[in-house]
Amino acid sequence: MRPIQMVDTKTQYLHIKADVDKAIHDVLDTAAYINGKPVQDFAAGLCNYLNVKHTIPCANGTDALQIAMMALGLEPGDEVITPSFTYIATTEVVALLKLTPVFVEVDPTTFCIDPESVRKAITPKTKAIVPVHLYGHAAPMEEIMKIANEFNLFVIEDNAQAIGCDYSFSDGTVKKTGTIGTIGATSFYPSKNLGAYGDGGAIFTNDDSLAAKMKMIANHGQQKRYYHEVVGCNSRLDSIQAAILNIKLAHLDKYNQARQSVAAFYNNAFANHSKIITPFIAPYSSHVYHQYTLQIKNADRNALSEYLAQHKIPSMIYYPVPGHKQEMFASFGLPQIHLAVTDELTDCVISLPVHTEMEVEQLQYITKHVLNFINQ
Ligand SMILES: *Cc1c(COP(=O)(O)O)cnc(C)c1O
Asked: Angle at the Cα of 214 (from 213 to 215), degrees rounded to 5?
């Protein structure tokens, strides 16, 4: 049995090595390291895959979120509603732009933003909602868009963990996550479902003028070289990463299916266990399992993690401290809030290895050890 890893990008690379190596060498041969043809090809490929009008590649997922918020003309003090139960990047950019993060609850079954909690958090200062498609499951976008339309709010989807996920609306329409809100943002960090071999990110929108603005912001606020219209930043996806991502985009559906097979194995092994809650899939969402996350009830989650580590099985707690309890916000003077669901999930979640290269033998070994511990 191969050693078990949370992600195994090396083995995945070996399957596509010839194509990737050639694509990298083509960039070296042209010497167009910045904004070369692969970057435009990749943007076009993503537009086609996601069925969205504009894709703006950028340096990473955090920049993607930041550029999206910069483009919306939000002003210091404007409130942005986000789940507390997410990766810090989502809320960090809110703080960085001197906007006010307003932390809300998630649904304990899907781990995604709870629309009722969003409704309750709306004030006259609210300008945007940032739903996160956490672990590869879609946030309840139909309800979020309804609330956004009702209160005239922007919606920025944090799609860093869910590229390829499908959202089904009640009228039967199906859209890819990241293409439903005002703007979608994603990351190509190596361990993401569509991962580069370095950093990368992209922003999506169907709005022509927002697309032009975001393109400009990502490029020092210029449309014409050396004529800077607005304060922007420098955020680029380089040609080598784009060339690699072009190859991998063609495999994305297959990669997501491989993750789904891993999840099916785990689900089957842990089905109907009184102390283990397996991931739930809402009727409106598919699941691309960026993470496979269990809730452990009436058993010691941290001890389980240690037990697994002793048996050379990695596991992770995503995330050990929710946003509303992070020290970085202590000086923000945010109102004291109590998020019971978020706190409960923080104490009971554990993510098991899930990636495209897992072997049945590894899965059997992992499930056996989880059950050994839980049943002891
Ligand atoms: C990875 C991630 C990001 C940030 O992406 P980077 O490319 O690492 O900057 C943002 N939000 C979520 C939910 C993520 O998982």
From this structure: 90
On whether both 215 and 298 belong to a single domain, the answer is: no
Q: For residue 364, how far is its CA from the centre of ligand 1 (angstroms)? A: 30
Distance 273 CA to ligand 1 centre (A): 32
What does pTM read for this prediction?
Answer: 0.97
Asked if 60 contacts 37 with a C-beta cutoff of 8 angstroms, the reply is: no
Residue at 18: amino acid letter? A
**190 with 314, same domain?**
no
pLDDT in tens, 190-239: 999 999 999 999 999 999 999 999 999 999 999 999 999 999 999 999 99
Which residue's C-alpha comes closest to atom 14 of ligand 1?
A: 160
* Residue 40, Cβ density class (10 Å: 0-12 exposed, 13-18 middle, ≥19 buried): middle
Structural domain boundaries enclosing 164:
9-249
For residue 271, the SS3 value is coil
Arithmetic mean of pLDDT over the chain = 97
- Assess whether 262 and 137 both reside in one domain: no
* CATH code of the domain containing 338: 3.90.1150.10
Distance 81 CA to ligand 1 centre (A): 17
**At residue 333, does pLDDT exceed 90?**
no
339 lies in the same domain as 280: yes
Residue 188 Cα: closest atom of ligand 1: 7
265 and 244 in a common domain: no
Sheet holding 349-352, edge to edge: 276-277, 292-296, 349-352
* Residues 168 and 135 placed together within one structural domain of the fold: yes
Residue with CA closest to ligand 1 atom 5: 61
Rounded mean pLDDT of 41-57? 98
Residue range 252-290, pLDDT digits in tens = 999 999 999 999 999 999 999 999 999 999 999 999 999
